[in-house]
Amino acid sequence: FRSHWDRLNDQVNVEVQVTVDKLVFDSEVMTLTVKDISPKNIPCVNKYPHITVGTISPEVKPFKTVKLLDKSFGSQRPNGVTVIDLGDQSLTLGGYVQAIFTMQ
């Protein structure tokens, strides 16, 4: 785990472009799924690369988006989860990599 963290930390402040293709949300969190990232060598520890848009309150932690995506793309999507495919409206966004370490 630590070696992966070190590799991620080496990418801090690298300029990237991501293409997002889905908006996913439930009653607590909202996220955008990442379809493509450039440069390609940016590592991701999550099964579903994403950008957390926000949470309903400070008590709801952003890492809940990981669980939301696992549920959303599992065999059966639970009630209360909405997935909007952006289709031709997909967005390409630019920014910088920032490392976030969260104990879940």
From TrEMBL:
GO biological process, alphabetically ordered: tRNA splicing, via endonucleolytic cleavage and ligation
InterPro entries for this protein: tRNA_lig_PDEase
Highest taxon in the source lineage: Eukaryota
CC terms in the record's Gene Ontology section: nucleus
One GO MF term: ATP binding
Residue ranges occupied by any tRNA ligase phosphodiesterase domain in the UniProt entry: 13-97
PANTHER family associated with the record: TRNA LIGASE
Protein name: tRNA ligase phosphodiesterase domain-containing protein
